[in-house]
Write a structure and sequence with these properties.
With about 210 residues, the chain is mainly alpha-helical. It has 2 domains: about 55 residues, Arc Repressor Mutant, subunit A, CATH 1.10.10; about 140 residues, Tetracycline Repressor, domain 2 (Orthogonal Bundle), CATH 1.10.357.10. Helices cover about 75% and strands about 0% of the residues. Helix 5 packs across helix 6, helix 6 packs antiparallel against helix 10 and helix 9 runs antiparallel to helix 10. The longest helix has 29 residues. It is globular.
């Protein structure tokens, strides 16, 4: 029996990543073209030219595969947040991490825009969207806890949840401002992200209207 070498291990991991990417892209492509209600795991596997049994090694459902593109962006955000200088405040580091991901991964690219618009138009994706969101918030909360001088799990979870909520609001407004067949201007998104995090840093409480 031969030992598994490092190059073999690296090659196998790259192949797994490529297979996962092919499945998520096929799922998104079919959902955009034909509507999520007409997508099946069988069609996704066939579109990606991958065996059906292999599909379930990567995703548990068609909805998970369709929304995997959104999860990729969140994973990149958490990674960039962890890489920010440790002396930065939580919200400053989060804002800079978001902007870095936009610059590096081109959030205005076809795949990202497609999944964001699909989420807005397909209510059936809500349960899976909530599941993905919960996982994203837990991952970001863990990263926030690591940054704090004094760990505070409640603050970390509240901050993570609020940050993702702010991003959803900004992205929703950004998409509403442009027709479906247009790519919204990325400079507008960058500016609104900055404004949203500045608002969070200042605090959300404001006085009520005078009686």
């Amino acid at each position: 029996m031969h030992a598994v070498t490092a190059p073999d291990t690296g090659r196998r991991e790259r192949k797994k990543l490529a297979t996962r990417a092919a499945l998520r892209r096929a799922a998104l492509r079919l959902a955009v073209r034909d509507g999520i209600e007409h997508v099946t795991v069988e069609r996704i596997a066939d579109e990606a030219d991958i065996a059906l049994r292999t599909f379930f090694n990567y995703f548990s459902s068609k909805d998970e595969a369709v929304l995997a593109t959104a999860a990729v962006g969140a994973e990149a955000l958490v990674a960039r947040f962890r890489a920010r200088p440790p002396g930065e405040s939580v919200l400053h580091a989060l804002r800079e991490a978001v902007l870095e991901v936009m610059d590096r991964d081109d959030v205005a690219g076809d795949e990202h825009l497609a999944v964001l618009r699909l989420i807005r138009s397909a209510p059936s994706l809500l349960p899976q969207q909530l599941s993905v969101l919960a996982a994203q918030e837990r991952a970001l909360a863990a990263a926030i806890t690591e940054r704090l001088v004094t760990p505070d799990a409640a603050y970390a979870r509240l901050c993570a949840t609020t940050a993702f909520a702010a991003l959803r609001v900004v992205l929703d407004r950004w998409l509403e401002a442009s027709p479906e067949d247009d790519t919204p201007p990325l400079d507008v998104l960058r500016r609104e992200v900055g404004e949203a995090f500045a608002t969070l840093a200042q605090g959300l409480d404001r006085p009520g209207a005078a009686p």
